[in-house]
Backbone:
């Protein structure tokens, strides 16, 4: 049965819908209880197993993987918005499960949030393949060149370095403060100021770094001054305690001396 992208769907295939549709009737599995009492509509990135194909009208009978709800996809919808579901984008793999996950990504553009769903779909194994573009290629097409290139397999250290660069690339939204702090950290290790012109709300990165550095030094001076004052106070209190103990010992010796004199006088014979 023809579906989108010039693909064919047959009995038992896994297909994925790529467009939300509120008009297609979805029937709940009687053994599955939905939270709101009704099954979800046909939505983008849903995966379905083909239960039957109807040649006379082009419809496809499917059962959703997960809640086992059933639907009949009209021919026009299936040919426009249904594709084979064995391969998909990493974002569309959210919630899907398989025994083995084999995500493929570009180490120059892939981010940590993109890698996570791809690396957690397989229950037995997950293996990430990183496709390195040849110079001149875009993301979806091979470069047209007369020079034949030989495929290259990178060694373990190179692969680890690529994977670490992916983990450091975070595309989640940041607060202005977090963005500025990250930019200051990068400037501190020597990154060019031009790389962070948008990180400080219109303030020149050099000025922002200078102000931050001076503020940091002032804060350091304040801490040093407070530490010195605290040390002086501790020394003064310690000196006072030492003097007090010395005075107490001197007083104790004087009292002992007086008692010894009194004892000597008590034992003297009076004539």
Residues:
């Amino acid at each position: 049965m023809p579906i989108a992208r010039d693909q064919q769907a047959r009995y038992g295939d896994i297909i994925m819908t790529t467009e939300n549709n509120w008009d297609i009737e979805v029937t709940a599995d009687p053994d599955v209880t939905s939270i709101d009492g009704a099954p979800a509509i046909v939505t983008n990135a849903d995966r379905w197993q083909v239960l039957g194909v109807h040649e006379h009208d082009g419809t496809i009978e499917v059962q959703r993987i997960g809640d086992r709800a059933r639907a009949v996809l009209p021919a026009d919808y299936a040919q426009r918005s249904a594709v084979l579901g064995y391969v998909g984008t990493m974002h569309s793999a959210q919630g899907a499960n398989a025994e083995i996950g084999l995500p493929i990504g570009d180490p120059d553009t892939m981010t940590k949030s993109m890698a996570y769903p791809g690396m957690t779909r397989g229950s037995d194994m997950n293996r990430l393949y990183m496709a390195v573009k040849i110079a001149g290629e875009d993301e979806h097409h091979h470069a047209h060149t007369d020079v034949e290139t030989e495929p290259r397999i990178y060694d373990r250290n190179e692969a680890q370095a690529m994977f670490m660069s992916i983990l450091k690339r975070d595309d989640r939204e940041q607060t202005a403060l977090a963005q500025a702090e990250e930019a200051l950290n990068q400037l501190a290790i020597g990154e060019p100021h031009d790389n962070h012109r948008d990180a400080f709300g219109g303030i020149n990165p050099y000025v922002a770094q200078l102000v931050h550095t001076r503020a940091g030094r002032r804060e350091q001076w304040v801490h040093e001054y407070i530490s010195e004052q605290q040390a002086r106070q501790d020394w003064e209190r310690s000196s006072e305690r030492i003097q007090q103990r010395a005075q107490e010992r001197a007083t104790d010796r004087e009292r002992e001396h007086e008692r010894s004199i009194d004892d000597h006088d008590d034992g003297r014979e009076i004539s």
Remarks:
- The first strand starts at residue 2 and ends at 3.
- The CA atoms of residues 236 and 242 lie 10 Å apart.
